[in-house]
Amino acid sequence: MIRVMIAEDQGMMRDALALLLGMEDDIEVVAQTGDGEAILGVAREARPDIALLDVELPGRSGLDAVAELRRGGVAVLVLTTFARPGYLRRAMESGAAGFLVKDGPVEELAAAIRRVVAGERIVDPALAAAALTAGPSPLTGRERDVLAAALDGAAVADIAARLHLSESTVRNHLSAAIGKTRTRNRIEAAQLARDNGWL
Amino acid sequence: MIRVMIAEDQGMMRDALALLLGMEDDIEVVAQTGDGEAILGVAREARPDIALLDVELPGRSGLDAVAELRRGGVAVLVLTTFARPGYLRRAMESGAAGFLVKDGPVEELAAAIRRVVAGERIVDPALAAAALTAGPSPLTGRERDVLAAALDGAAVADIAARLHLSESTVRNHLSAAIGKTRTRNRIEAAQLARDNGWL
DNA sequence: GTTTTCCCATGACAAATGTCCTGGTTCCAC
DNA sequence: GTGGAACCAGGACATTTGTCATGGGAAAAC
């Protein structure tokens, strides 16, 4: 019996996946949560063989929990809406055993779970190619911070205050990020970075 | 037997919903599509009693299809990830019989379908309140266009070219939109408008 | 037939943004 | 211990953005 836990914030999707997986003879859903913060605690409690993690979760990204779950002997299958190369890269670097996009048919899911438990690694081939061509993030830590803060339309002064920096420094980081992403302003830069999973 | 069609772009969600609804004794899933353009054609073919429509679909928003389905005698239940007041408003004004957010448990879905078929209207109370307090969109048609074009970080010159306007006109529309939304720049204005479902 | 609203457009101005330069610090790698 | 990279900061400058005043045309409302 394969013990599975599910971390997914959309209630309807979470329930549906749990019900469907529960119908498989060799799979048992032992825990569910919609909260990123709760993942590790729930896993410690339920001791699953494998965890199904969404990337975008309230509280804490599923990606942040991968390494720790791995250390606890739990295999991780990352499940996401967005096919972002940087997500795949981070998931794999943290030791995830598989990366699945929610676009595919449900049958893929149970199959992927079985293959992961059997020791295989699962990756969408098209996405893997994209991750390789896009390369790793060219951004430095601070550039990342500044872009993330710029994403919602904050002015330079706001960003500076939020990060405890001078306005000059913020503008320098922004300019560098715009240059590296070959975009024309902070917004394009921030959105490109987000879409590549660099934030 | 209630004949249901599903328009939803996430394959896994679509399959899962179809399977779950198919397990109900009185519900039969007669058609599925992941393409907004295809909704009307599929509905004509399958002649469902009720259509489950996602808002964000490739090709065409589910909201655009509501009025026409309604005219064809098909009840519409709008199902969306995002609880945006403007979506609810538009759905209801186009004649949708219900509006459900994907956050809730799956049991809600079958129940909502039965109630809609019985002639009731289904609305999330919290969301209805938000829609009422937020009021209708204050934006004029052109302001809407300009904000939508600004959403991805385009410069004034780009927007002007895209909409065949002068740069001055674009700046005037943007300024008006910023004023109406009580935001501080085009980005905040565009994001607020998007989050309210005004685009 | 007048008022209102929306649309388009200009010009002028202040403010914010993006670029480039300089120069300082720390930390790591070779 | 030297070079490189990341970090912080300031100043100067051109460009872009946002605001405001003004005015004309079209359509709908009264």
TrEMBL record, chains A, B:
Signal peptide: none annotated. InterPro entries: CheY-like_superfamily, Sig_transdc_resp-reg_C-effctor, Sig_transdc_resp-reg_receiver, Tscrpt_reg_LuxR_C, WalR-like, WH-like_DNA-bd_sf. Keywords: DNA-binding, Phosphoprotein. This is Two-component system response regulator DesR. GO terms for molecular function: DNA binding. PROSITE patterns: HTH_LUXR_1, HTH_LUXR_2, RESPONSE_REGULATORY. The keyword Phosphoprotein applies. It comes from Planomonospora venezuelensis. It comes from the Bacteria. Residues 3-117 form the Response regulatory domain. The modification 4-aspartylphosphate is found at D54. GO terms for biological process: phosphorelay signal transduction system; regulation of DNA-templated transcription.
